[in-house]
Amino acid sequence: MKLWGGRFTKEEDTLMKVFNSSLEEDLALVEEDLDGSIAHAEMLVHCHIISQEEGEKIVQGLHKIKQDIATGNLVVEGNHEDIHSFVEATLTEMIGEAGKKLHTSRSRNDQVATDLKLYTKKRAKETINKLQLLIHSLEKTAVANQHVIMPGYTHLQRAQVVTFGYHLRAYIEMFRRDTKRLEQTVANLNESPLGSGALAGTTHDIDREITAEKLGFSKSTANFMDGVSDRDFIIELLSDLSIIMMHVSRLSEELILWSSQEFSFIKIDDAYATGSSIMPQKKNPDAAELIRGKTGKVYGALVSVLTTMKGLPLAYNKDMQEVKSPMFQAVDEVLLSIKMMDKMVATVQVNGEQMKQAIKAGFLNATEVADYLVQKGVPFRDAHGVVGAIVLYGEKVGKSIEQLTLEELQQFSDSIEQDIFAYVDYTNLLKRGNKKEMLD
Ligand code: ARG
């Protein structure tokens, strides 16, 4: 059964049917579509547009469809253009004439916009929940490694001492911001487009606030044309997801580097690594690499939707059907990636000894030697020059700063005394100034 056809003289070409149908991908929207239809039917009764009896038949039928799909008694398939057509056809087959009244004063255009908003809301909340689990695992691993000192890097060159726990906490901050962004996306989309009709409302006296409230929106959209053609919320969600992937990808990159033999700072649990078909010794960080790789797909979805939307005149255009699958796929990939990262973070083995060893080379306390001199009254810029010369000398004689004798150090500044050694000790220096925060 088709929703249109009266004005046509010819059947659709078979390729056109396949080309035009979104039924397969619309499976993701089935729950939202049924909820939207239930709310719409109840509103039609309330506004005396259909009878109480018709309304009850429709609503019961829609609930039955929901149930049948959940139990597997009904499969979303067949020769239908999209989920909206499928539901109407199935309903009418099930309850008869009343089913044909469901579509009174609405269009698939306001329907799909409503479905997509409900879907975006649901998936954004799911992502927020998964992020909280990841934050929790990061927190646990950070606490367990609160005092494990390691080199902190800039330009991937050893820079200053940090702790492994503190390093992980940087990611917690990123995922907290991601959470806020998702919450904002949900808040921004929270207006119901249902009742906008195809683009220009309806001559029936419907009440859009009723459907808005029933579906959990704070109010209905102000402009019909915007209501049916707005896909900003999908772009916002995909932006949020892209940023999340950028963050998990950066963490993946660090796990990959740290687990390499060159670093040997961590071991990824065997459960999240794989081997080589030819090199028996290999253990590869595939899960982290896949997260890094999937990031490109999610960015691709964002660019795809932005590009689809950029040239569209108002209001609805069929191009908009193409924004659905990139979004559905992106959300699936992101949820999987967050879950996988959560498992890796929770099981990572930390080689604190190796991290400590790495601190010994690279003059990671050079900045603190300059701080020491400043405390002795040397202006910072002069202190910087003095320590630069000490580093140059250390490199020449193959010694770190703390390995130099007091006499050697005093050649560079007579402000240097015995207490320098305690001052620049790696564990001690984390207890000074605001560096203390790294140990909290
Ligand atoms: N299947 C379409 C979509 O996903 C909704 C239907 C709009 N069709 C139409 N002829 N106006 O965007």
UniProtKB/TrEMBL annotation:
Tell me what organism the protein belongs to: Virgibacillus chiguensis
Which keywords fit this entry according to its UniProt record? Amino-acid biosynthesis, Arginine biosynthesis, Cytoplasm, Lyase
Q: Which family does it belong to?
A: Belongs to the lyase 1 family. Argininosuccinate lyase subfamily.
What the entry lists under SUPFAM superfamilies is as follows: L-aspartase-like
Which Gene Ontology MF annotations are present? argininosuccinate lyase activity
Cell compartment(s), UniProt: Cytoplasm
Per the record, what are the reactions this protein catalyses? 2-(N(omega)-L-arginino)succinate = fumarate + L-arginine
Cross-referenced HAMAP family, in alphabetical order? Arg_succ_lyase
Name the pathway it acts in: Amino-acid biosynthesis; L-arginine biosynthesis; L-arginine from L-ornithine and carbamoyl phosphate: step 3/3
GO CC aspect terms: cytosol
Checking InterPro entries in the record gives: Arg_succ_lyase_C, Argininosuccinate_lyase, Fumarase/histidase_N, Fumarate_lyase_CS, Fumarate_lyase_fam, Fumarate_lyase_N, L-Aspartase-like
Q: Which residues form the Argininosuccinate lyase C-terminal domain?
A: 363-429
- Protein's recorded name: Argininosuccinate lyase
